[in-house]
Protein 1
Amino acid sequence: MAATDSSHAHPLLQVSDLAKRYGEGEARSTVFEQVSCEIEAGEFVAIVGDSGVGKSTFLNCLAGLDSWQQGQVLHQGVDLSTLDEAQRAIWRRAHLGFVFQAFHVLPHLDVAQNVALPLMLLGRLNADGQQRVQQVIDAVGLQGLDQRLPQQLSGGQLQRVAIARALVHSPPLLLADEPTGNLDPSTAQQIMNLLLQQTRDRGTALVLVTHSAEAARRADRVLRLTAGGMQAETAAP
Ligand SMILES: Nc1ncnc2c1ncn2[C@@H]1O[C@H](COP(=O)(O)OP(=O)(O)OP(=O)(O)O)[C@@H](O)[C@H]1O
């Protein structure tokens, strides 16, 4: 019976034969090609690879923030290349959370306003939405700091704001690009713990780009991006 249930017909994310190139003719350079992978709902997958191999570019392709020259990115069966710019923006709002190394918290909005932003853009900032904002702020350990401006927060606190904002609308997928790269080792560990706990609690799939072997070790699977494709990394002995 389960095989006929359409909600299980597609993986959460399916990437087939993706290629990213810059330039034309003689000047053409390939960042990566023949990249394929699947991510299931609720999975935590770490993506590792040499510096400059295109990990951030790949993550941006998954979010439909960057374009590609060949292949497909399907989210629950929806082919991102069939959506125009405006449709992608609307799709992104509903289906994704994104956390960056440089936090990307809006400087003129306070903590609660930053966290509320996705719900506001989705037209869901009603009484339930406001309550949800408060719950998420508490869940990431920022209780009492709702009205602080970003300039009054530490790096670790700023990343907590970014995580709360990425999860407030309960997206099925969270993309994180080196989210602990700007933090000291002890804060980085706290933020990784928080990211994992919050995504696991909600059944959110997490795709994490990282240079940290320690962070990658905690993933369900580790994938290595190379210029010629994506390979499953086997666990160290
Ligand atoms: N406009 C462009 N023209 C040509 N090449 C470009 C352009 N923009 C980016 N690149 C190249 O794309 C590659 C991928 O960059 P990206 O930042 O995605 O790599 P990364 O694996 O995330 O690197 P890091 O681990 O150092 O953050 C780089 O080698 C970069 O030089």
Protein 2
Amino acid sequence: MDKELRQEQERLFHVMDILAEQIGMVEEDAARQRKEVVDFRKYFWEDVTVNQDNFDDLLETIISLRQQAEVLSLSQSSHRQSSKRLASLRRMQENPYFGRIDFAEDGLPKAERIYIGVSSLMDPSGDDFLVYDWRAPVSSVYYDFTPGPAEYTTPGGTIRGELKRKWQYLIRRGQIESMFDTSLTIGDEVLQQVLGQSADKHMRSIVATIQQEQNRIIRHDDGRLLIVQGAAGSGKTSAALQRIAYLLYKYRDRITADQIVLFSPNAMFKTYVSNVLPELGEENMQQVTFQEYLDHRLSGTYEVEDPYGQLEYVLTASDDPEYQTRMAAIRFKASVSFFELIQAYRSSLEKGGMRFQSLRFRGETLVSAEEMEKKFYGEDASFRFSGRIEWLATWLNERINEAEKLERRKPWVQEAIELLSNEQYELAYARIRKKLGLKEDSEEDVEGDHLTAELARMIVRKKLKPLREGISTLQFVNLNDIYRRLYEDSLHIGPWLEGKVPDAWADICQLTVKNLDEGRLSYEDTTPFLLLNELILGFQSNVSIRHVLIDEAQDYSPLQFEFIKRLFPAAKMTVLGDFHQAVFAHAAEAVDFDVLTHLYGADQTEAITLQRSYRSTKPIVEFTRSLIPGGEVIEPFERNGNKPVLTAVTDHEVLHRSISDQVVELKSQGYATIAIICKSATESAVAFKALSGIDELKLVTHSSIEYKQGVVVIPAYLAKGIEFDAVLVNDASTRVYEYESLRRLFYTACTRAMHHLQLYSVGTVSPLLERAISEGHVQVDEICH
Ligand SMILES: Nc1ncnc2c1ncn2[C@@H]1O[C@H](COP(=O)(O)OP(=O)(O)OP(=O)(O)O)[C@@H](O)[C@H]1O
């Protein structure tokens, strides 16, 4: 082994030398290219002959400008490439590779040693790979096989052979700290070490230890939809991010980072995962939250509720007399049935029911809503719906043109002319002269009548501009009223409704109309409202996006998926989630993503399940899996730790004292990220105030942007997707977690812990913990006074 290690260290030195050499070369290239770009920019105009005297000269100028721009863009692109390569090589200096396979390809005399790292490295002759990129086809053998027959797929076909041995290396600053023959060692030593580390400010890449089932997700390449249902901590987010890196490598000639969109649950999560791709030498994909999209599209319409507002209501307002109606509304408005109902409603609008906004000008109606409706439905019924709206817009513009002519003669225009300031007058005068083709130095003057007529034209045109803009953006369609009508008249508007609505539909309608009339759009109405808008006016889709990945997908409603699908019609979709962590009320009964199969059809859909959990120690996983039905299938990774502890306390004073003491203790043990997790924002705010004695304690709210290390108080639904060295569940009592409906939220809170989990309960312990206690997965402390 020593001899082997020595040989490997020597090889590593050799690789490091070549790396240093290549870095030197690329540095020179990058500096030269940079200078070229800078010089080019500086002298750009010197090489362009700008001549606009006649058409030929102008054409020549345009061609020469375009050529210059192309050369500049090429130089910039070369410089970008070199900088990217330089960054990869520098990263490799720290750790050139992490794995090796000895693979004997069928038909070849001996096994080849294939070293695998975050990027590839050729020997100076350019003939051999010293290191293969982890995304290269051959590297998949490293992740997918144990010694024995193995194969991998290349664009030219499948390569078969035998994997003789497989190695993992721990290299730091050019030194091999250890190497493991993973064909011999039991358990995954490197993974043990990686998982034993502290939680970081940012998520880390997992390329050195990707597991076989995760690799299937990363390299998946068939069909339009990949669904990943995975246990808490099973690496769904990690797999999603490495998948993006893989796609950017495999399709480097066709797909760029800005053609990939990751839907994240909240702003803090966005910063938490933002380092993984740069760490892998790739640019970050676009990251959005669904809420950001809604805010952007719905701004200026209603007072729009966000998902946290809805969740807080669900968690804290059960005494509200309208609670049950709202819960029924939340569930129904999330469903595919409601999606179909909206589609049917939209179809019904072909025959009648459209609502319009009268065009008013200076207090008078130019075209009334009724006239528009008559015109809209008076046309040939075979005329396509969307065509009819455009056609109506054209008609309205004509009506405005007519009105414009009449307006010019009205007294208000004369008054406006008289009130023009000198500057406005001069400006208008100059413009009119120009329009009439009078040169600046010409003596010729504009006739008085002509001038007045022109001024009147200008004034009326300017005043009518907002109206014209409103027409071009189709604002004459009264979308708010059309949406409202769905609820107000729904019981009369069509047979398509029958049998499709829940029992509480009449109450739902009443509640929705009330909210809309008060100017409020509840979160459950946001996507349906937008959907109806898009179905009426035409979808504002984005065809340049090639891949959409949706993390924490259990929190999206089937209706939202339908919507996202239409938003990105050219994209493939990867959906990752865990129904045991579904915290939003609409998913209360959902257990899997089967409902999504019909999005693209079964032949375009593949589902992968991840059962192994990596985040937490074995005792923590044994505890958390006992909190959910069917949790037995979740496999903990063999990592030791203490059993979670449940401490019952007599009152809140003792609770806060115990938490404060525990935080001090955990800090002294070296835990860097400690979360006190509460049920809701309301509970978090109370705890934060009571625990203010804890040094540098931070409160996380839904407007928090950055995930910070240290001690935080956080509501469970915001902790989704992230992890902490130690988690303290603020109050796991019956009073807080009384209902079965809170099980998923409670599970989400507990599964955030990597190394240490402590639960408190003020008074009687929640029934959600019954099984964990009876099966002995939690150590129950004496009651603290
Ligand atoms: N193959 C792996 N190698 C090293 N670490 C891994 C691996 N897979 C997962 N992990 C680690 O496990 C933790 C959980 O991973 P991740 O957050 O991706 O899981 P998740 O399934 O998205 O979890 P959740 O659903 O609970 O949000 C992270 O710290 C991640 O780095």
Protein 3
Amino acid sequence: MLFSNDPIPVSILSGSLGAGKTTTLNHILNSERELNAAVVVNDMGEVNVDADLVERESELTQEDDGIIELSNGCICCRLRGDMLDEVGRLAEERDFDYLLVESSGISEPIPVAQTFARGFEDAEFDPTGVYELDTMVSVVDAHSFWQGFDSGQALTDDSIEPQGNRVPEEALMDQIEFCDVLLLNKCDLVPEAELDEMEAVLEALQPRAKIIRTEHGVVDPTEILNTGRFDFERASQSAGWKHELQGGHHHGAAAEEHGVTSFVFDADRPFHPERIAQFFADIPDGIIRAKGFFWSAGREDIAMGLDKAGQSVRAGPTGTWIATLPKAEQEQYFAARPGIKEDWDEQWGDRGNQLVFIGRGFDQESLVDRLNDCLLSDAEMDEDWSEFADPFSPDEQRELALADD
Ligand SMILES: Nc1nc2c(ncn2[C@@H]2O[C@H](COP(=O)(O)OP(=O)(O)OP(=O)(O)O)[C@@H](O)[C@H]2O)c(=O)[nH]1
């Protein structure tokens, strides 16, 4: 039992459509009979099927406010304020000790976590001190794991309304990269050897999370409730690619055995815009994740970003080079990050390329050769860069057209 001033712990379940979130939630509710939980279920459709399933298979009912349904929208965007107002109302009554949230299959976990950890400007209710985010759980479907990274397969499904121009594989990547506990569910449908391989990939994409294999969502509730694992700063740094950029390369025996590798391409000369765009549109299938920033010749004023999740590849303007900031701001930046000046170029400052690639069974050497060929040659370094054809969008990261196989 909580004391009335203790914050109420919250566990959030994310995961793609049909991965097993509802099944897991029901398992938890049924095996923790003593747990006095309230549940928020977010469904994209008009009828909240998941809420009905939770109600039918557990002892909670919607009438006595055990379950809040948020339908026809997503709690990571349109329904963020609604969710807070609802859980604020719940907190006033305060006859429960734990809050469980099941997000919709395409929810991005970061904004949902932010809503609980830091509140949301458009909502009246401020959750800080009332709720405390305890564990972010992502449920990954082992049975459709590889297809999950295939070209927009789920986009053809009419029941899904993509968020903006985001695609489900990007949501899947977010869910893998931002969580404390990762349930690899539906393990009954996949041979052991293949599960080992998936786990090696998952570890490379997300080195911090605890990975647990499950069948029909059967997991020890202590892995999900009151774990105290969530920490916003740590979670936002936990993606494998960030780790890699910070020089934290260490893959275990499992990765090695399954040919899972990663590397950072680092160069301080600009890319030819047309050649690098072509390269991005034709990255080998083995690369599951690529991320980072780059310098496209002719765009000296802006840092370009690359974001590849499965078959989806986005590239375009993303940020600012420190070299383009006013002197006073630059000094502040240098003061805060003493190491940065080591890579500072007299003429070009911090402009350069840092791209992380994570995948399995790809030929790193040939990839690096291809990337080197995309850099400007010595002769091109002396040309007028503004004359180069530039296929990138002028103002945002956009999906690149995929090269025909
Ligand atoms: N074989 C097998 N089936 C499973 C497993 N877990 C869940 N299922 C089935 O998969 C289907 C989807 O499970 P749900 O728990 O509804 O998945 P969900 O993630 O809540 O789905 P959405 O809310 O639609 O995104 C159901 O028919 C489950 O019975 C599992 O481990 N193995």
Protein 4
Amino acid sequence: MAAQLDGVLEKDLQEKIKNSKVLVVGAGGIGCEVLKNLVLTGFLDIEIIDLDTIDVSNLNRQFLFHKEHVGKSKAEVARDSALSFNPNAKIKAYHDSITSNNYGVNFFQQFTLVLNALDNRAARNHVNRMCLTSGIPLIESGTAGYSGQAELIKRGLTQCYECKPVPGQKSYPGCTIRNTPSEPIHCIVWAKHLFNQLFGESNDDEDVSPDTADPEAGAEVGEAALAKDANEKGNVDRISTRVWAKQCDFDAEKIYNKLFFEDIKYLLSMSNLWKNRVPPNPIKWDSIVEEGEEVTDAVARDQKVLTHSQSAKVFAESIKALKESFTKLPEGDYLVWDKDDKHAMDFVAACANIRAQIFGIPRKSRFEIKSMAGNIIPAIATTNAMTAGLVVMQAFGVLREQYEKCFHIYVRLVTNPRKQFIIRDKVLIPPNPKCYVCSAKPEVVLKVDTKNVTVRELRDDILIKALNMVSPDVTLDGTSTIVISSEEGETDCNDDKKLVDLNIVDGCVLKADDFLQNYELSITIVHKDPGREEAAFEIIADPSSLKPKEAEPSKETEKDEAQPSTSSGQNGSSTNGKKARYDEDVSGEVLVVPDDDDMPSTSKAGTSGSGAAGSSSSGSGVEKRKHVEDDEEPASKKVKVSAQQDDSDDDLIIMDD
Ligand SMILES: Nc1ncnc2c1ncn2[C@@H]1O[C@H](COP(=O)(O)OP(=O)(O)OP(=O)(O)O)[C@@H](O)[C@H]1O
Ligand SMILES: [Zn+2]
């Protein structure tokens, strides 16, 4: 092994490498590369864990796996393949989830160092907490397309994975989606909403009918049209789209005419909308002009941009298939949209293209729509390889105990003005004192409708999904009430009770304790009445932000208050520290500002992903986020960084333009 040759690494480090014991969490794109690097560098005691088995789609970049390994445990095959590089290494593999009860604090404490190579926020949060509790340094990493990063997380020294707020998903204004789409993505989002309205978990926020409350619309004209046409069309009646579709037995022609003719005509009646826009062109089913031959070949169907008539055929076929699956479900159950489900994907592609055609928006191939609808960012082997290299370099820094030099490192597609595409921060980002995970006294405020939210929702949606606990015990502070017990069955009788039934009301404090994570959180309840378009709950990580302001709020504060909170989980939202400032950053673009002597340097990149997320300044009391690179050019050379995040695989994107 080259790294063990004299002169490649210093003697002292070579010794430390030989004597250390490391845990690699995840044996996917980065994990395979990291494991190979560790073995080739001379690490002899390695454990690796992955819950998954090998899929054909992994083979193009997870080179420790071959065709014959498909279906086998990733961790076990990765171990066997890596051992071929150095049979003297000791590698233990676990085919399991790192969040399982088997891996508690004692497990983590055996390691010198933990290296994350994960693809989702929940697992990253968990390992973050375990490493904080155990006091073990963690190297967090991630890639998205051509961007990657590696970051040291060390208790008390650096910010933790959860010091930064959870970025919100990119969302589009309801009226753009419902009334005035102008880009293919608007039609794709609308089509996904339509899927849910017809077959999925319907949600008021995902209405697909014309929005009469659009402030830009000539509402009176629209209302008049509404009153006149109501009962015939179903679209503007007070019944839901699903009930109406069921009543007409999911007849493709009727649904088509409602969505793409009647609703569009109705939109046209909102004349103000079209004063400065090209108006849409409603097309009736029986006036669709046949264009192009029927496409039967699956590859062509995926790659070609279908004509309007071809899309209409796919629309009809997919509705028929989805109706069959839907009607087989027990009453109250629904379909879940999945990009890999043929009919669900066909439906969204067809609807998006038909709507695009009507609004004069370029149509897309099914393949393109799939990647946009599924938020797919291609995984690139070279980015993974580079990032894995950086992970091991960070590990060297830890072994040398040169923590102060373990700056956050990024791989970028576009070089900086000095032609560097591997760039690092100039300083370590300190912990956020308001962080609800790593601060001395973790606390949050939970704004929740105590009259309607149940104990089950508190546990599943808030504590587990939004606050990332694994198996919480919850008591009502100052009383002997056990609200939730992690012991099976012990508090099942509470599950369907509303919070108020257990006296969990405005001003109460709950103590939530996750034994596995060794994590205790104090939760102050603030009752909020339900609002139509509001999230069912909101988590505010900085309780002091709720206290009455002493002075008049500054303009900036007012603006901040008006921002929507970052979302975490489906219905809820969570914020950590400077919430509005953060939202502003993620919804738009972050302007990189030059270094400034009187502010600690911090960086903000696409945060999501890699978990090795972009750093933020939330802990330092600094209002402005700055991206500070080594050797950064003077102020005149400003670069923009924007952030984006997908649903669950939260890999980072940093884009320069
Ligand atoms: N809780 C967990 N415990 C252990 N391993 C996990 C856990 N969550 C995710 N992983 C693993 O982390 C790895 C991440 O690797 P990667 O991002 O390359 O994903 P992938 O599933 O291999 O690829 P893709 O998502 O692109 O199909 C995966 O192998 C995944 O199984
Ligand atoms: Zn923290």
